[in-house]
Amino acid sequence: MQQLITHHSSLITTKILSDFRNGLENPDLLKWPKTGNDPCGPLIWPHIGCSNGRVISIQVSGLGLTGPLPPNLNQLSELKNLSLQKNYFNGNLPSFSGLSNLQHAYLNSNEFETIPLDFFHGLSNVMVIALDYNPLNQSSGWALPHDLAECTRLVNFSCSFCNIIGEIPLFFGKLSSLNSLRLSSNRLSGGIPSSFHGSLLQILWLNDQENGGMNGSISVVGSMVLLTQLWLHGNQFTGPIPDTIGYLASLRELNVNGNQLVGLIPPSLTRLTLKVLDLSNNLFMGPMPKLNAASLSYGSNSFCQSGPGLQCDPQVDALLEFLGCVEYPIRLASEWKGNDPCAGPWWGVSCNPRNEVSVVNMKDMRLNGTISPSIAKLSSLVEIHLDGNYLHGRVPRNLTMLRSLRLLDLRGNDFEVPLPKFSSNVNVVFDHVISRTPSSPNANIGATSSNESSDVVVHSPKSRLGIILASAAIAAVSTLVAVFVIIWCLGKRKDGKNGSNGDVKSYGLEGGGGEIKSNLESGTTLSFSVEALREVTDNFAQENVLGRGGFGVVYKGRLEDGTMLAVKRMEFPSGVMGDKGTSEFQTEIAVLSTVRHRHLVSLLGYSGEGNEKLLVYEYMPQGALSRHLFYYEMMNLEPLCWPKRLTIALDVARGVEYLHSMAHHSFIHRDLKSSNILLDHEFRAKVSDFGLVKLALDTGKSFATRLAGTFGYLAPEYAVTGKITTKVDVFSFGVILMELVTGLVAVDERRPEEKQYLVEWFWQIKDDKATMLAAVDPALNVDDETRDSIIAVADLAGHCTVKDPSHRADMGYAVTVLARLVDTWRPHQGTSRCSSNRSDLPLPELVRSWQEEDLACSFRIS
């Protein structure tokens, strides 16, 4: 009977190996007999290992074999070692289910196309599985099945470049024998599993995942004390390197290149002696440490100094400690670079003229964590805005020692009470509702300020009544102020001054096309007849042309009462261009009917009859910015002085910031340029031409769209990929800043070759102050008063035109920088350097007019 069983088994084995051979395109490379012989008989076949008449190994590594494996391979039940690597095996991998004796499976460097779902089922004794470099399920990818959890003796699992998708399963962290896990260059997502805490892994390769890669914290690796190789490069990991990294005494290679890791390099890392250490292309901050590695790379981080061992400025140290306590948000970490927070771009940080940090503004930044006591080291702080975050814990008591502090806004967080007691000079804004005190679980924690005791935790009924009455009084005062401002604004409208302040005009029609009357209060966009618009433009007379664009001509129009209009005439034949023009026409109406802002040109109405499309705007008497920068001599205009250029830049930044983040929806302009910036009679700027605007579906993500815009102003990522975010507008704005500084148009082929493309040339000279100042527009009088301001704008232009959009400033930052610069010019003692129709006013009246205008605009409802 036993002989019968053995003979039957031999026949099965022979059949399987014959199938193996017959499926190959080049079977002669095996040198197996073509018929008859038992592979485990007296003449054992080459590359076959046997024991007790059963096949236990197939070792054909590197023979150049081409073809599929037989589907019945798993019937070799005694198989222990399978070495098929470095061949050209292709087709479907057969299931290995049932190979309970298999210990080593080397299948790497082949061309297997699919892997069955039950491939790993029952491999209870396997120690090595290598599947690297196989195009498994190439189009859809495949997830690691839970059957792998049954491989409890697994020591080495290697599957790089084999199209794994999804997250790393938790069970890998529970395989006590696992020594090496190599999963490079797949499509893994998610984070390093928490089950890896305390794992005895020695080799962990998770580098270069496609489609964005893995993310989250790497803190768990600090507990993996046997690690020798840790490759995490080419992902999206965030957070700091854990302090416990120094306990990994066996670590020899650490590569985290190309992630979004932040924070300070832990001092414990300096204790390790490494062969390879690559920290490049992250957001590491603080001092550059002295590290011990044979191959060391630091490049492209945010260290405060350029050399190892050099200390940071104390203000930088204090701000970085603050940043660490709020978990290093990427938005801040990507901007806080260098050793001078007053040189920018330090988002949310403002300084006084002595280059001392005076304002920390972190409003609505979604910060988590606590307030670091280090913030009290910024002794010149005047305002701290932390409202609208998710901060918790106690407010550091040493903040009460800030002698210059006047405002501390803590609303919308979860701080513990009582708050420290601040001096009467500090306005502490704090609103909170919590259930912390056992004696009063529903106690309300009301608004407290420095004028009331910050130690009050629970308000009594009288106290709550006082708060209600106080709130009512505040509301009443606010209402009176609002009413006053509205009356003031309406008064300005009746005085005919609305054009300079961005109020919206609307025009209705009476009769068949004769009279257009003003309807200032409606704020609606009206439909006009073509006849009426022909009448006010003298039948689109040539002498009324204000300018020409890609889809139309703009004409000046005049009402009987002298009110001026701008009428854009868009006339297209049918066909593709007609469709494109119609789309632009509809987009401009849709956008400008939705957004209203004092620095966006107001759409008053439209007309669309047949192929002729007409848009009616408020009239901007000084025309486009471009004519005052590039063509002022031929048009007999005065060149713009520097204060006017600064104010124009700030106006544009505020208008675009509104489009990006303050309107009901977030919009991307896509064609921001100097010819689309219009100036009113006081040279206040408004952004125009909204035909290419796109609704930003999610300002944190890019999306593809038809390429549009103007060469020279296009962001590189948009020009190459067609994908946009709000950062494409930031790039265009940076080009406009360069034009304001140099007086040169963005692209001019008549200039020398190195200067034809303004952005490239500007980047070559911007860091050399002497060269930069030599490139300033000759029409500007550069003196001690303007030099620093021009350099600051040039620096901002650089931050706005960084090639990587994730490292580019945003419009909120631009507004902050420019507002600080404009403030240094206003008010200005003595004779004005820049003529204005209000420059003859006495200084107190001039200051009062500015204050009233800013107050009015802050209450204007768009």
CATH architectural designation of the largest domain: Alpha-Beta Horseshoe
- The parts where pLDDT drops under 50 for at least 5 residues are 1-5, 433-523, 573-580, 697-707, 827-833, 835-848, 850-862
Strand-pairing-aware structural class: alpha/beta
CATH topology of the largest domain: Leucine-rich repeat, LRR (right-handed beta-alpha superhelix)
Give the strand order of the largest sheet, numbering strands 1, 2, ... along the chain.
Answer: 1-2-4-6-8-9-11-13-15-17-19-21
Q: Summarize model confidence as the mean pLDDT.
A: 80
Q: Indicate the proportion of strand residues.
A: 15-25%
- CATH top-level class of the largest domain: Alpha Beta
User: How many alpha or pi helices?
Assistant: 16
**How many strands in all?**
46
Helical content, roughly?
Answer: 10-25%
Structure report:
- The protein has 862 residues and is of the alpha/beta class.
- It has 6 domains: 75-303, Ribonuclease Inhibitor (Leucine-rich repeat, LRR (right-handed beta-alpha superhelix)), CATH 3.80.10; 314-459, Leucine-rich repeat, LRR (right-handed beta-alpha superhelix), CATH 3.80.10; 460-495; 503-618, Phosphorylase Kinase, domain 1 (2-Layer Sandwich), CATH 3.30.200; 623-825, Transferase(Phosphotransferase) domain 1 (Transferase(Phosphotransferase), domain 1), CATH 1.10.510.10; 831-862, no CATH class.
- 24% of the residues lie in helices and 20% in strands.
- The chain has 16 helices and 46 strands.
- The strands form 11 sheets. Strands 1-2-4-6-8-9-11-13-15-17-19-21 form a 12-stranded mixed β-sheet, with helices on one face. A 6-stranded mixed β-sheet has the order 23-24-26-28-30-31, covered by helices on one side. A 6-stranded mixed β-sheet has the order 34-38-39-37-36-35.
- Helix 9 (642-662) runs antiparallel to helix 11, helix 9 (642-662) packs antiparallel against helix 15 and helix 11 (727-742) packs antiparallel against helix 14 (784-800).
- It is globular and about 115 Å long.
- The termini are far apart.
